[in-house]
Design brief:
CATH architecture of chain A: Up-down Bundle
Distance between the termini of chain A: 42 Å
Structural class of chain B: alpha+beta
Largest sheet of chain A: none
Helix content of chain B: 40-55%
InterPro entries (chain B): Spore_Ger (IPR004995), UPF0353/GerABKA_families (IPR050768)
CATH class of chain A: Mainly Alpha
Helix content of chain A: over 70%
Keywords (chain B): Membrane, Transmembrane, Transmembrane helix
Largest sheet of chain B: 5 strands, antiparallel
Family (chain B): Belongs to the GerABKA family.
Number of domains of chain A: 1
Pfam families (chain B): GerA (PF03323)
CATH superfamily of chain A: Amino acid/polyamine transporter I
Strand order of the largest sheet of chain B: 1-2-4-5-3
Oligomer: heterodimer
Radius of gyration of chain B: 31 Å
Number of helices of chain A: 16
Number of helices of chain B: 18
Radius of gyration of chain A: 21 Å
Organism (chain B): Alkaliphilus hydrothermalis
CATH topology of chain A: Amino acid/polyamine transporter I
Amino acid sequence: MNFNNNKVSAPQLGSIILLTVVGTGILTLPRALAENVGSDGWLLILLGTLLSAAVVLIHSHIVKSFPNKGYMEIISTCLSKPVAYIVVALLVVYFIILNGFLVRLFAEVVKLFLLLRTPIEIIIFSLLLLGAYLARQGIETLGRLAELLIPIVLVPSLILFLLSLEGGDLGNLYPILKTPIPNILKEMPTILFSFLGFDVLLIFGLYVNKPQKIAKSATRAILFIGALYLVLNLSVIVKFGVPQTTHLIWPTISLFKTIDFPGLFIENVEGVVMGIWVLIVFMSIAPILLVKVILLQDLFSVKDNKCFALPLLPPLYFVALWGASLAESYAYLDKFVTYTAPIVTLGIPGLILIVMTFKKKNKKEGEPNA
Amino acid sequence: MGLWKKIFGEKKKEAKAGKTMPDKKLDKNLETIKAMLKDCDDIVYREFEIGVDQDYKAALVYVDGMADKILINNFILSTSMVATRIVEPTAEELKQQLSQHMKDHTFAVTEVSEQETMEDAVKFALSGDTIILLDNCEKIFTVGSKGFPARGVSEPVTEAVIRGPRDGFTEVFRFNTALIRRRIRDTKLKVKQMQLGARSKTDVAIMYIEDVVNEGVLKEVKRRLDTIDIDIILDSGYVEQFIEDDWTSPFPQIQNTERPDVVTAALYEGRVAIVVDNSPFVLIVPGTINAMMQSAEDYYERWSIATAVRLLRYFAATLSLLLPSLYVAFTSFHPQMMPTQLTLALAVNREGVPFPAIVEALIMETTIEILREAGVRLPGPIGATIGIVGGLVIGQAAVEAGLVAPLMVIVVAVTAISSFAIPRYNLAIGFRLLRFLFIFAAGALGLYGIMLSLLLVLIHLASLKSFGVPYLSPFVTFIEESGDIGDTFVRAPLLSMNNRNAHVNPNNRNRMDDRRRENFGDKEEK
């Protein structure tokens, strides 16, 4: 038995991935889908889930093929050392920007629904401090916290979904398959954005105690997220219909706000929703903070990474307050993600995969000669 | 002692550092002991002579009050003084073996041991045994004659149950190990003893089931106990604070119990028990929050009832942590989030209260904590009076004076009662402390503050480990080891608890074979 082993189990990694991804996408997904593909969002979600699952399989394959190697080591093995330094440094910047914008979105929601008169700076700062605290505790704590929070978050959410079904109109789901296929393919980035965050797998894979189980747990997490998005999307469309959904800023919260069972004293579940919401979003921000800490540790090749948690806060804080308004932040984020996310989630791992297969081939061809 | 060592230290080859070896002469030995125990007027020295002609000198030394005088009189003194006059070892070779003869034929007591050094012998005497010195003999005997005043076995005060055994641990180390041993007729129950405390030499025993225990934990317990370096150990609380994983945490990471049945059950879960002399609280490691939320009774009642009670307990724990802060958050930040009727009722309720909700909550919570503390110190009947006076009179008066809202009194009362529904006092006190953090957070940031504090507490709890086992087990490993959920906020039927909890990582997980089918037919099929 190891007393402080700095390891997580594969299901814990799955939980981390689930919470990281869900926190990003759940807020605005139904609106984005309704705007772009009308009532055919479910099809897009299905496609997105399958695509993400495929990418996750690639990621887990890479992690599995390099046991006991961090992401930076993997990159430097495949793409040479200087490249690794540059890529990892850029990754840190990428994650800072991504994380910063998410913090901003989250803070805006909190301000709107919970703390109208509190300055947004305080909301952001308190959240970041807590995230730094978790990052200092390390991956083991994060893994356990994620597994603990899974039922705490999911059980009430499912109950809320059930309650919100009342008063919906299934007719809102029609027409089916009206959107032309090119349009659906064009909207793939939107849906992929909702799945963003599973790339933490590449960095956390090193810390899983049974690497051969990563693929199973991670794919399960992605499928689960897909199912959750599907339920969410369908519930929102059934409840509000496509035209109304496009005008909601936060469709998920609006959905839960409609829950009303006066006889059962369930008149206003906003408190519960916001409570769960804080948990979910924190758990999508904190793992990425830890990812940055680990990347920085690799970059500077030091043993203890605790010292990196706090210095990360000022840049994050700065990015979070970048946009003058919510809409502006959203626009920045959208642009940023569209250009960079495919490179990070697909480009670099794809390159690694190609180099890997070539090296393997070379080895196989080389062996008989030698 | 320095002089003694100077003269005889070189002669004794096996002399240990700083220890005095016994001399052949009785007088010398007696002098040594008297020098060690100088100014200790509670020591009894009894010199006597044995043999037909009373030509062998002997002496015994014990601490008055600590040793059993009847035993000494009847089975040491009378046998050596009277019996040796009847049957005397006259033969020359027997004279040489007087000590062996005395040990084998004269002392009619069960525990006789030989001590190598004077220091060891005196240590035994100070724990209630009797030292016997013989002339012309380099051996020192100690005879087990502990007979100090002790409280009898009585019902555990802090862990009362309605159904279940009523015996509880006492202050006597040996009684406590016996109470555990009495329940387990298993050769695999091991008791490893040691003495801790440089001066107090307190007896400490590690108890475990050899083929069930988590060996990593056992090794770690031994290692950590060996690191303890303090002059005296007064209670198992000392040991607990020396060996716990995180001393900054408000949560107890080592379970303590007054109940032998709880210890026994824990031993068979693969845990390790630490019994400390002078303390009726036995430590159990590794401690998990789940184990501390359980009561022994849960296993003696039928599973459905036990499950309901456990769910209630977890609910109460949540209430005791969150209720006052939720009141503060909802009244001062989010009145729109409550049902309209409730908001209106609350508004009427709070009309005329001169303080913001947070001040109101702090006043009442502090008051109730003072009452609780006062109640603990006061003798039983007065304590109950304080409860009534505090709870009813002060609450009522505060409401009538318009200082607090009636709802606040209800909130505080429910919170206080809820915190007493947590079975472990030291865990409940952790929750009570954190409650104030939550009140402040709610006063500053409303519901958002509460959720952040909750996350803070959860992160801290998730980071805690007790002897290598995560403190929140099995809630943090439930996907892999879903069987463990059967003994958490639910209590599965005993019939289905075939395996020991995986999170403790016992050596042997099988408790029993699944016989539901054979015993109950198809009714109980899984």
